[in-house]
Amino acid sequence: MLPSNSRSGVLAVMVMASCLLAGCASNRREAYLQDKAAAHVYRQPIAEVWSQAKALLSEEGYSMMEAQGRYEMQTEWLMLGAPSSLGTTYARYLVRGGQKAPGQTTVVFHRQMRVQSQGAHNTSTGGSAGSAGTDSNTLDRDHAMEWKLLQRVDAEAAKALEAEAARNVP
């Protein structure tokens, strides 16, 4: 390790600090943009925004089932990454669209995550002590997916929000 009073040691610490700060600023900007996307009201008809939401999920690898006569859909479970001895992670989406007034559309993405692990192996019988069990199961709003949809459907609004974030988020 370099002595702290050496020039190269001080320079290394400064470079690391600036990288960490840049990363923090980047994360703050991303969180700001995602929060704004969550509150965004599209100025397009709901059918137009809805078709883009379905296309986005399809591109992400999800297959979906749509509710009859409503702007609501749920995807099938999708395995994220490879199975692991620590557990296998799956995700699915519940998406709801609404129209506040003609030309005022909202779309909300909820992502359900599930981590599933195999039951413990029973050494006395040679079988497993139980079937696959779910270790955790969460349902959260997915602002990142809403931001992706905003960029896709209303690129001008997304660019305006990016400029606003650059001005307002240190």
Characterise this structure.
Keywords: Signal. This protein has 170 residues and is α+β, with helices and mostly antiparallel strands. It has helices spanning 7-39, 46-59, 143-153, 155-168; strands at 64-66, 72-75, 78-80, 88-101, 104-117, 133-141. The chain has one domain (7-168). It has 4 helices and 6 strands, in the order H-H-E-E-E-E-E-E-H-H. A hairpin with a 7-residue loop joins strand 3 and strand 4 (88-101). Helix 1 packs across helix 3 (143-153), helix 2 packs across helix 3 and helix 3 (143-153) packs across helix 4 (155-168). The longest helix is centred in the first third of the chain and has 33 residues, at 7-39. It is flat and about 45 Å long. Mean pLDDT is 82; it is low at 17-22 and 120-131.
Annotation keywords:
170 residues; 6-stranded antiparallel beta sheet; alpha+beta; flat; signal
Sheet with the most strands? 6 strands, antiparallel
Q: Treating each run of at least 4 consecutive H or I residues as one helix, how many helices? A: 4
Number of strands: 6
* SSE string, helices as H and strands as E: HHEEEEEEHH
Q: Give the low-pLDDT segments.
A: 17-22, 120-131
How far apart are the termini?
Answer: 32 Å
The total domain count is 1
Instruction: Tell me the fraction of residues in β-strands, as a range.
Output: 25-35%
What structural category characterises the helix and strand content? Answer: alpha+beta
Helix content: 40-55%
Radius of gyration: 22 Å
Shape: flat
Mean pLDDT score, rounded? Answer: 82
